[in-house]
């Protein structure tokens, strides 16, 4: 009966049965109370249930002292987790790991030694994964990646994962890239001189070698022309006044200088002043 005050007998039954009894026994002992009402009353009285009900209505109890003892013995003897799962048929792998942490059993993860950390610092930036695995036996790919992140190491060699790797840049390749870049050779031609290196890898390695960028700096005259002509001039006039500059380069430079274009070009090549369409007459719009 909803809204009925809880009697002292009902409260005594909740205190005695709520922690361990099944929901069937609880509902039978409290026939006038619903499942939700009993649960709310137990929470208000600060009582915690030691079990929970699965969706299939089968009851699963929390870890017993016997299960804890089996886990302690199995973990201390070095049994693998699948073998411990065979001894605890109702426990999954994640439940065993969580209970192990609750019981404060030592982790089986091997701590990184100073020698391993030094080898990782030395090999991780440029060595292949085969060399890293050979120098760090017993360490998996995710473990090496996580330890490198913690040590703030960056892999300079472009790799394609744990399977294959792309070789690091050799001194000979660095020399070819330096000479070709300083001589003004296009990147496409540099790719032919360095087979196996893509456009992106060459551009990225150029930065690591501190080679100068080929982007031409804007002169004071170009900036003055841009400030004067960009708001109201057409793109044809702008590109004619700024030879060697593309439309994207002009747009980017105008954005960095906070210049707004007040004119946009129509499909017929005529200039329209943005935001001032009300100034046009019907005849002009028809034309």
UniProtKB/TrEMBL annotation:
Protein source organism: marine sediment metagenome
GO molecular function, a single term: DNA-binding transcription factor activity, RNA polymerase II-specific
InterPro entries: Homeodomain-like_sf, MYB_TF, SANT/Myb
Designated name of the protein: Myb-like domain-containing protein
GO cellular component: nucleus
Alphabetical list of SUPFAM superfamilies matching this protein: Homeodomain-like (SSF46689)
